[in-house]
Amino acid sequence: MLVTKKHLLTGAMNTMDLPVTQEQMDLYNSPKRPNVQDIFPDLDIDQREFLISGMLPGDYDNMQFLVENENFVKGGLHD
Question: Choosing a second label site near 54 at 20 to 30 A (CA), which of 6, 20, 47, 79?
Fold first, then answer.
């Protein structure tokens, strides 16, 4: 299933093809949902992080995107 999420830091819309069902996504989007690892036990850590934050694999490994994203640096607590 193609899932689109807003990147927590940059605001960019990112899409990832995830092996999830509509039922799992409905549960994830419910107000009193279980932990993401309980809903999606077959997803790897990068896929679960994408669902939580919209961050793509490698974003944590390459924090250079923070330096390159002028809006985040100027609008955050980094001034």
Answer: 79
Contact 45, 26 (CB under 8 A): no
56: its two tokens: 């793509």
- Residue 12, CA distances (Å) to 31, 54, 69 in order: 24, 8, 11
Give pLDDT, residue 41.
96
Which DSSP state fits 24?
Answer: H
CB 45, CB 59: distance < 8 Å:
no
pTM exceeds 0.85, yes or no: no
pLDDT at 59: 79
